[in-house]
Amino acid sequence: MSDALLEITRLCASHGESRVLWDVDLTIARGRAxxxxxxxxxxxxxxxxxxMGTHRAxxxxxxxxxxxxxxxxxxxxxxxGIGFVPQGRHVFPHLTVxxxxxxxxxxxxxxxxxxxxAHIFDLFPKLYDIRTRPGGFLSGGxxxxxxxxxxxxxxxxLLLLDEPxxxxxxxxxxxxxxxxxxxxxxxxxxxLVVEQYLDFVWRFADDYVAMQGGRILRQGRIADExxxxxxxxxxx
Length: 236
Ligand SMILES: Nc1ncnc2c1ncn2[C@@H]1O[C@H](COP(=O)(O)OP(=O)(O)OP(=O)(O)O)[C@@H](O)[C@H]1O
Ligand SMILES: [Mg+2]
Fold this sequence. Notes:
- The structure is a single chain.
- Helices cover 33% and strands 27% of the residues.
- It has one domain: 3-Layer(aba) Sandwich (Rossmann fold), CATH 3.40.50.
């Protein structure tokens, strides 16, 4: 088993005629948390969608867990173990919290069985309290916890999160941080989190990768550099 869970090689992607990702090479090691940072519009969300398969790569390859997934549909990638918490959360407004969580179970494929894993309610107790409430009646912070819980219900080995702290109050940000630390340290999950709030990722992530103009500008270990230095270097 190689140390690399995800290996991205010379990945390019476009929106219509305009190229958005240029020759992205990136390796994410198993069991680590990586922060993907960069200014608005540099291509962070597009990169996550291209990893998930909800956006098609124009060229390049993606290997996940030793398997070339470049041509695979998103549902197949999900069953292979890629979980996604999209920017803007996208909970189902007419389904209850519990039903929203249950939609995440199908991503397990043959890797798991049973209902919604209990550890999701240990990480986010509020979700248990509001389990019968429709998703459309949740606050922003509750929706974010639900979106993370739904992805965790699929028991992914790689968890992708797109700006999980955007518009979220500090006590929920702390719970999200604790949840990400738990899934990495206790469950061995690998995490790739897009974040503009560097202080948040600098508290717990292991590595960072900074993008600019659709390319990787710089990467390194979080322990080796301060958030302020990196923010200055990549002009965030
Ligand atoms: N559906 C789309 N159609 C056309 N252009 C798009 C589409 N989605 C994104 N883009 C463009 O692609 C570029 C990268 O967008 P992307 O959403 O990946 O950036 P981002 O780094 O996630 O930005 P933000 O920090 O604002 O979320 C931007 O120039 C954006 O305008
Ligand atoms: Mg984005």
